[in-house]
């Protein structure tokens, strides 16, 4: 009789981090399902975590580089030697007053992540290195309502009432990176009588389920929402009560001034959606009991801050902030601080990776996310000396990847690397690890402890959640958190007086009367109660200085683009080179493959030719292809102002004729599965990420992922 049990933990096959249960039989992970105590869903990517766990590519021992950076030659070393190398270099950096020249790239699973604590105590920076992430959305909501929106997770679709409207604006919600329960939530809400509207240049799986598909021009979403805002105001369809009570005095009058010329007819000329459609959706939204909008950035990402601003204005004037089916505004339960709490470095004072003309304005955008491209510039400028990456893959996953690769190889006049130390924590060899001086074998998410404490959990009424080991780690794998705690004990011991990660989490959990063990026995999930809507009514307002919603961003009035109000034009990359490069390049997502981490890239289940996604052909409209003499599976060259690649053509009616689509995240050159399949990185087509530096700096850390291309057979 085999010893078999189901153990609750948290998935990390994508950043949604769903609650799952793992079946373990005689110490072997066998199966993953959604946790029935948390709505019980896991997607195919989550379930394929089993093959990841037992991949032959798992790293098991610390490695030290023996060849040149990028060659991928390493020798095995001990953890003691690896820790000594790191501690020595970090001490040296600190001693010469350059602690801020340490950056760690990681995805914080908690706002109290031990890695982040180390950086704050030591004086280094975090860079999530996720340009595809939703920094613009977060920034916009902080400016408007004084709080962070639920970002990886969409509106609480399970609360949408009958007649509510759900808008997916360039958000491919069925493709992972959202809780695995989302597809069901959306379809359940539809079954209750809600309406689903999909705004996307591609006829996505979501569009196939939608009541209305609006095939917008890429980055036309700001204009689309501006047209709706104009119509709501001129037709007196806005939520007068909300505006009078909760919008900062004077802002609505200013909004009228801005929206005055944003007629649906004029906006139609930008976004290529008819004025009738813009008006009809605005009218429906005005009458609906709720409207929720889900978007990471804008449609195809280009003008994300403008879109997020327009989207926030729309939500405010339709009275859809923090209501069921609308835009939830999460709050956090109070974990106990681990004293002493490190203050962290002053980013503005010490400098940042930013190199652009607006660097002095950065205090307005103090923000943690910025693209890899900035890291490359900082290495060249001498502003970044030690880089530690965990669960991130900047050598492949980011626009500017080639520039990053060149920067980490660059040497000074004495033949020494400009970047003095590059460390990669990984579970498998990756593009980034190939360049590293030290490659450290991390524990997978099935092998480690982690306390999940982030606003997005709020959506589901979860305050904290526990990731716990369900199986033993292979070889000498150690979790990056354990190593950062050890480095903390060596370098900044006053902040690391606790024994280990469990003791750290125990202290925090004491704030809500729990401990790791108690939480584990409870099934790993703790909730303060119900979600709670319209909290601003009970707490005396929003988190802004005025306690009201700020529609106007007067602090950005002087910026180069007068961004006190959203700019409605298409993103700059789409407005240039229109004749030489007639197509918009857009990226899309599938449930089999999200992001460029080797975790999905190197998973045999997800890359299977029959049941997964094994290649990355160019999605091109059938009519457009025929005009170019291109047939299905023809090899075509895709050229942009920044690069050129060759791919197979995949003809489809499901994309606008002026767009072509590539999946983001292919192109690995390491890993048994990845290198056996086909697929090329779309990043190679994105022009120098610094091309529009003024614009980029302004929006607080977005990389541009937009470009125009031409197709040559
Ligand atoms: S959406 Fe899928 S891959 Fe992502 S965390 Fe949830 S189950 Fe895992």
Essential attributes:
713 residues; alpha/beta; N-terminal domain of TfIIb; Rossmann fold; Dimethylsulfoxide Reductase, domain 2; 4 domains; 7-stranded mixed β-sheet; 6-stranded mixed β-barrel; binds iron/sulfur cluster
Terminal Cα separation, in Å? Answer: 61 Å
As for the CATH topology of the largest domain, it is Rossmann fold
Determine the number of helices (DSSP H or I, runs of at least 4 residues): 26
Total separate domains: 4
- The top-level CATH class of the largest domain is Alpha Beta
Sequence of strands across the biggest β-sheet: 5-4-14-13-12-6-7
CATH architecture designation of the largest domain? 3-Layer(aba) Sandwich
The Cα radius of gyration reads 25 Å
Structure summary:
The chain has 713 residues and is of the alpha/beta class. It has a seven-stranded mixed beta sheet. It has a six-stranded mixed barrel with strand order 18-22-19-21-20-23. Strands 10-9-8-11 form a four-stranded parallel beta sheet.
Polypeptide structure, described:
With 713 residues, the protein is α/β, with parallel strands linked by helices. It folds into 4 domains: 50 residues, Single Sheet (N-terminal domain of TfIIb); 245 residues, Rossmann fold; 196 residues, Dimethylsulfoxide Reductase, domain 2 (3-Layer(aba) Sandwich), CATH 3.40.228.10; 141 residues, Barwin-like endoglucanases (Beta Barrel), CATH 2.40.40.20. It is 29% helix and 15% strand. The protein is built from 26 helices and 23 strands. Helix 4 runs parallel beside helix 19. The longest helix is centred in the N-terminal third of the chain and has 17 residues. It starts with a strand and ends with a strand. The mean pLDDT is 88. The structure holds iron/sulfur cluster (SF4).
